[in-house]
Model the fold of this input.
Amino acid sequence: MLRLHDYLDSGNGYKVRFLLRLLGTPFELVPVDILRGESRTEEFLNKNPNGRIPVLEFSDGRCLWESNAILFHLASDTPYFPPDAWERAQVMQWLFFEQYSHEPNVATSRFWVRHTEITPERRTRLDEKIRLGHAALGVMDRHLDARTFFVGERLSIADIALYAYTHVADEAGFELERYPAIERWLCRVRDTPGYAPITSADTAPEQGSSARPA
Amino acid sequence: MLRLHDYLDSGNGYKVRFLLRLLGTPFELVPVDILRGESRTEEFLNKNPNGRIPVLEFSDGRCLWESNAILFHLASDTPYFPPDAWERAQVMQWLFFEQYSHEPNVATSRFWVRHTEITPERRTRLDEKIRLGHAALGVMDRHLDARTFFVGERLSIADIALYAYTHVADEAGFELERYPAIERWLCRVRDTPGYAPITSADTAPEQGSSARPA
Done:
């Protein structure tokens, strides 16, 4: 069985849990307390030398890290990674946007606000991250204004990746009501059959929700 | 013909130029002076709402942005993106590592050192980026210690992406002699037929270097 080394509050981990549930793929959740340094132990670094969760471990011991690479791998040959080459390119574009322009600002702000002391030096950097996070949210809001999902008008791993930290951006102080197209899209993603919230530790899909969409 | 909106000194742009030359795909280079705000004009934002180079524009006007998404798109069905599913997953892993753990530290340090005044506040942040950049280089060096290339023992877009800013990391003060496996790998990549340096504006491959490898 797949083992997911993960920290339940992490949006990066949540992306993978979200997709595994949609696919109806059972997995074992192996908790890694990143606040206590458990992603920096020698044992963990043997799984991911970069010392980050999530890590997907296969039954033969192979490990894959980087949340969006895990999404790509799991979604290949499923409806969550479209078959069309141009749509695939756009999915990848949004996955890299998420890791470069969104996550380092929206997710890091959320982490700092929840888990660290906001010193004056950190306040300055937090303000910059909030500004850059709003820039990323603005790009998303304009893109979604006339669309239902990010690519090809159906849910893909681009939506799953961007949903993960956007839907909890308010925890960092981002006022999502400034982004009506994002708010409508968040509701659409949340309505997906098989949806579970970020803190859910469910590892097996509910009866009847495990079918891959046609 | 493909148009590449790009800034010649950018490693992110260089990745795309590198691959286009390897593939023997002619392209028009459209210079964008990011230091003069040319990636923030309304005209440019219509091509990439995130305001960053490189942007690949197709003859029908479609635009693709995010350097690693462009690499993925151009390399599909070529030897630079392996056919094996597990190798593909690992290529993606290293592409996301590049954009999350490497580029924001190695490339941003290089940009600051070359183009900005190092104020005391920036000095503190630069020191942190140098530390994190060394961490990323350490991960790469250990991975390359017993390998010729990042994935599957042959050049892929993972190597092209990581080469772009690693081979100029000394311009930010990173001492690459601390990483012997990286230095050997840099030589291997540089030896690729059709190789051109980062500042080359060549847009058409040399005669005899345009063939795709078998």
About this structure: Chain B has two domains: 2-75, 85-190. Residues 25 and 204 of chain B are 7 Å apart (CA to CA). The helical segments of chain B are 11-23, 42-47, 67-75, 85-115, 120-144, 157-166, 180-190.
